[in-house]
Amino acid sequence: MKTLLTRSISGLFFVALVVLSLMLEQIYFLVFSSLVVGIGLFEFHKLFSIPKQFEHPWSVTVVLGLLVFFSSILPSYLIYTFSFNLIWLVPLIILIYGVLQLLFFKEKARSFFLFIAALVYIVIPFYLGFKIHIKDTGAVPIILGVFLLVWTNDTFAYLSGNIFGKHKLYEKVSPNKTWEGFAGGFAFAILMGFILDHYIYVNAGYTPYFWAKSAFFIAPVAVTGDLFQSALKRKMNVKDTGTIMPGHGGILDRFDAMLFALPVFYVLLYFEVI
C-alpha cells in the first residue's frame, strides 16, 4: 500500500511537471527536455558502466550528448538571433568524440558506438518532440496529446493486466506484462484518441480522427519501448535505471515508452501516413 501511494504521488508530480512545461512558454519545455535528456544520458552511461562498457567518465557522455541536443534545437528556437546554422555542430561534436576515443581510450569502437546509441535512443526523440512543440500554435499543445495517449495506454495496460491478466506477453523480458493488459491499454488509448480529436486541433489538412488513428500506432510502439528498456535492464541485471522518481525508478524507466512513441508520432504528423 505504501509503495502504491509513493508511486501515485510521484507520478502525479511528474504529470503536473510535464503539463506545466507544455502549457507555459516554450522555454519551459526546453528546460524540462534538457533535464530529461541530461539525466537520461547519465542513467544510460551508468547502466552500461556496470559491465564497464564505457571507457570514459559519465560527464563526457552527458556534456557531449547535451551539446548535440542543443546544437540540433537551437537553430529552430533562436532562428531570429543566430545567422548561422548550429546544426553543423552535431557531426563536428561526434567527430571530435571519435578522435578523442582513438587517441586516449583503449576500447575505442565499443564506447563510440554506445555513445551513438545514446544519441539515437535519448537525444533524437526529444529533439523531434521539441521540434513538434516549437511549430505548434494551438491552444492545447499537440505534444501533450502524445503524452496522454502513452499515459492512458500505460495506466490501463497496468490495470487490465492486474485484473484480467492470464496470458504472458513476453515473460522472458517482462514477466508482469500480459496480453490482456496489452488489449486493455490499446483499447483505452484509442478511446483517448477519439476524445483528443475533439479537443486538440492538429491541422485542417489532416484526416478525420487523426488522434484515434495515431493511437492505433502509438499504443503498440509504447509497449515496445517499455519491453526494450526491460530487456536492457535484464541484460545488465538491474531493476531500475535510477532512483530519481520514487516508486518508478529513473528517468529512462518513466520515459521508455515516450522514447519510441515520439519518433513514430513525428512521422505520422509530418509525413501524412494516416
How does this structure look, described?
It is a single chain. By secondary structure, the chain is an all-alpha fold. It has one domain (2-270). Helices cover 73% and strands 3% of the residues. The protein is built from 9 helices and 2 strands, in the order ααααααββααα. A two-stranded antiparallel sheet has the order 1-2. A hairpin with a 3-residue loop joins β1 and β2 (174-178). It is globular. The termini are far apart. The model is unreliable at 80-84 (pLDDT under 50).
Helix content: over 70%
The total count of strands amounts to 2
Major beta sheet summary: 2 strands, antiparallel
- By DSSP (H or I, 4+ residues per run), the number of helices equals 9
Strand order of the biggest β-sheet: 1-2
Strand content: under 5%
Which regions contain 5 or more consecutive residues with pLDDT less than 50? 80-84
**How large, in whole angstroms, is the Cα Rg?**
19 Å
Going by helix content, strand content and strand pairing, the class is mainly alpha
**Number of structural domains:** 1
Quote the distance from N terminus to C terminus: 43 Å
Instruction: Let me know the average pLDDT.
Output: 83
Order of helices and strands: HHHHHHEEHHH
Shape estimate:
globular
